[in-house]
DNA sequence: CTTGACCCTCACACGGATGTCAAGTTTTAG
DNA sequence: CTAAAACTTGACATCCGTGTGAGGGTCAAG
């Protein structure tokens, strides 16, 4: 598939896909004219990148972590520590987010008591 | 308390506190010489701002939402929708983060099987 | 009054993923 | 063959909370 197809399949802009490649996160082969071609597995790869990005890992961190998915050989103890520390970070982030959610939920609830126009936006 | 005290109490830099004020999120009175003074309630206020910021609300969104905490009068139906939509966003973010955490946790686990040097970094 | 800690207001810089524009090339449909 | 659609590289712009530095003012203690 070409970059437009991958973009459509993942929701990532072509710009972002080129950026991922530039950062070493995503590989592509080139056609004779220089256009990128991706295997269908690239869709999952991009999804994974997007997940990690939205979890607050930057591209360098992802680069550290991603290879261990595809390449068992490079699993160093250092990498385990890296993974664990990222995991801790994400866990903490989830905790924080839970607290914030409770704040917001409390406000919504409090509001609904005053003006009962239920919208049923259940969690 | 002065800005240095509030900074120490909240962990937010003085720069950030001034920024919050500039964005209308945080009020202060000024001494004769122009220095900021805060009531002790400002500590909670700043904590709240920090929570919302880290939940991905930008200062404009917080400005929309924060007043309803201190001022009951301005609770419009529009505000309820705003709150609900931010809540939905945060909930979705939590979901995504859970998935990402599982990915990372899976990697850590997978790794530990191969190289059993337990570090006991429990979640 | 003097000194040192603290504070003031600009104003510029950054990080990092993404948007966007320009000028040129490749691919595909007709 | 030709025109349109899709792609290429390169460069600059944007967002936005925060860092940082300059140049100067304030405040409390000695």
TrEMBL record, chains A, B:
Against InterPro entries, the record matches this protein to:
DNA-bd_dom_put_sf, MerR-type_HTH_dom, MerR_fam
Protein name listed in UniProt: MerR family transcriptional regulator
Q: Would the keyword Cell cycle be found if you checked this record's keyword annotation?
A: no
Q: Which UniProt keywords apply?
A: DNA-binding
Show which residues constitute the signal peptide.
Answer: none
Instruction: Supply the Pfam families for this chain.
Output: MerR_1
Tree of life domain: Bacteria
| Organism, as annotated | Paractinoplanes aksuensis
